[in-house]
Amino acid sequence: MKTPVRVAVTGAAGQIGYSLLFRIASGEMLGKDQPVILQMLELPMEKAQAALRGVMMELEDCAFPLLAGMVGTDDPMVAFKDADIALLVGAMPRGPGMERKDLLLKNAEIFTVQGKAINAVASRDIKVLVVGNPANTNAYIAMKSAPDINPRNFTAMLRLDHNRALSQLAIKAGVDVAGIEKLVVWGNHSPTMYPDYRFATVAGGSLKDKIGDEAWNRETFIPKVGKRGAAIIEARGLSSAASAANAAIDHVRDWVLGTNGKWTTMGIPSDGSYGIPKDVMYGFPVTCKDGKYEIVQGLAIDDYSRTMMDKTLAELEEERAGVAHLL
Ligand SMILES: NC(=O)c1ccc[n+]([C@@H]2O[C@H](COP(=O)([O-])OP(=O)(O)OC[C@H]3O[C@@H](n4cnc5c(N)ncnc54)[C@H](O)[C@@H]3O)[C@@H](O)[C@H]2O)c1
Ligand SMILES: O=C(O)C[C@H](O)C(=O)O
């Protein structure tokens, strides 16, 4: 039996939490032979804590063989104690008519508090995924609030955008999602993101050539992927939850267990690659191996791509300036 991995999940009684926890406990994130201890954080309010107790009762009722323990708390110092992995989901979601950056100041403080708690009590090797919006800048805030943890261990979720782009491409090209490789979504988890399939392949050939429709790329595909979150809020009256939880599982699973040489997209602090200033939390193409990610290097950036990549970068720099006083 392997040693249990401690997984902290914030916002555990929320919509995403409800789609996420049961899949982690069943082994879908870390493997079917990996026991987990769930350390769940919710707000110190009776309603939130009662809802969390209910979720924990249901987890108990599943009798998951891999669930080696559970902690429910309103204290970040308890939730992050010795945590190996943290999924920072707890934050306010946007409603109709809002942009994710409208949440910036409302949610920013959560990530300074939680970054500091992670710095104080978590495993020195903790892997952090920020889901709560605006995810990139919240991840940046958490990273800067935890100076004793390697900044590379803080990441933001671009995987939902990556998965959304994959499905739209598969539908357009009439191919299986599983056959598409070498896709990337550059930049911010916001409508400025740049889903880029110039390098993508399907059955060994170029997906871009197969689709052969640059007008569709610019006028339909890019805006559709960028505004998908808003379309779901419009349709459901609530922001995406099951697909967001699914993307979080994909992100952490690939980071921990590896991608076998395949590309995925992660929001990570830039190391200066592709002209993105150091530390900006930006969506990059990566491969993962042995619990580490590496940026895919050497991709040609044409003029249109440079413009798109700089636009989403400018938005991230603006968001970063807006929270500078908190750091
Ligand atoms: N990055 C992405 O791709 C992506 C996708 C979907 C949603 N999101 C974001 O994820 C966040 C959560 O969405 P949701 O639909 O689960 O929202 P929700 O309102 O259903 O749940 C959020 C939960 O977080 C809790 N919470 C709030 N502040 C907290 C804190 N400081 N500590 C611990 N718990 C706290 C709330 O009590 C609530 O139970 C939102 O910010 C949403 O915009 C991101
Ligand atoms: O769009 C939102 O506000 C929720 C989430 O970020 C999404 O992309 O579905």
From TrEMBL:
The keyword ATP-binding does not apply. Gene3D superfamilies: Lactate dehydrogenase/glycoside hydrolase, family 4, C-terminal, NAD(P)-binding Rossmann-like Domain. The active site is at H189 (proton acceptor). One of its GO terms (molecular function) is L-malate dehydrogenase (NAD+) activity. It is an enzyme of class 1 (oxidoreductase). It catalyses: (S)-malate + NAD(+) = oxaloacetate + NADH + H(+). One of its GO terms (biological process) is tricarboxylic acid cycle. Keywords: NAD, Oxidoreductase, Tricarboxylic acid cycle. Residues 5-154 form the Lactate/malate dehydrogenase N-terminal domain. It holds the Pfam family Ldh_1_C. Residues 159-320 form the Lactate/malate dehydrogenase C-terminal domain. NAD(+) binds at G11, A12, A13, G14, Q15, I16, G17, N107, Q114, V131, G132, N133. Its EC number is 1.1.1.37. Substrate binds at R94, R100, N133, R164. Belongs to the LDH/MDH superfamily. MDH type 2 family. HAMAP family: Malate_dehydrog_2. Catalyzes the reversible oxidation of malate to oxaloacetate. This is Malate dehydrogenase. It comes from Arenimonas metalli CF5-1. The gene is mdh.
